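Reading a protein record of the kind used here takes little practice once its layout is understood. Each number in the token line that follows is a code from a learned vocabulary of backbone shapes. One such record is shown here in full, so that the layout can be seen directly:
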Amino acid sequence: MASPVEQFELKPLIPIEIGGVDLSFTNSALFMALAVVAAAVFLTQSMRGRQLVPNRWQSMAELSYEFIANMVREQVGSDGRPYFPFIFALFMFILLGNLLGMVPYAYTFTSQIIVTFAMAMAVFIGVTVIAIVKHGVHFLGFFFPAGAPIYMAPLLIPIEILSYLSRPISLSVRLFANMMAGHTMMKVFGGFVVALGVFGVAPMLVLIALTGFEILVAVLQAYVFTILTCIYLRDALHLHH
């Protein structure tokens, strides 16, 4: 029986090495590209007709757009409108990456910590730059809660800085851990089904239930990553604490 973690192995499809640095095009890169293509095709094709009475695909595209637009409006406010394209693209990329990973023999790139950490760092650096550009030195006030007594500063400021710096870690680990754990469990129960043969009815039922649960987790984790991005952006724009 194959190891449950074998499915997460990075495999070079097109070996590329430049200056001793391995830049190979891997199975992870392939499915990231497929997620981008799938998002582009879904959105462009579903909205091509722009029917007054939308069909199923147009309804899904419009619901996706409205869902993220409402999230940005509620969490960030009108100041978040310029950042909507990035947040919408981030949501679609993670969502389709998670869902593509549910296809048999596909690769779930969101189960790689380096991928989720790279996305989390992009969000972290982006919102930090936005905060510094918008507020200048006043951004430092974010690390000292309003109304707190000044004598608590030596204790509160290091805690707040540490909490702020841990954002990309918590953001990336949450997505990575959920996707990796779910797919590992599915692989384990799938192995039981094969090993037990005709007696594998019970693990088969568990596997079916796990599959439905993992689809729900795939959508939920894309939502969680996106709404936390909106919250971090709100903090950067308004210095809410």
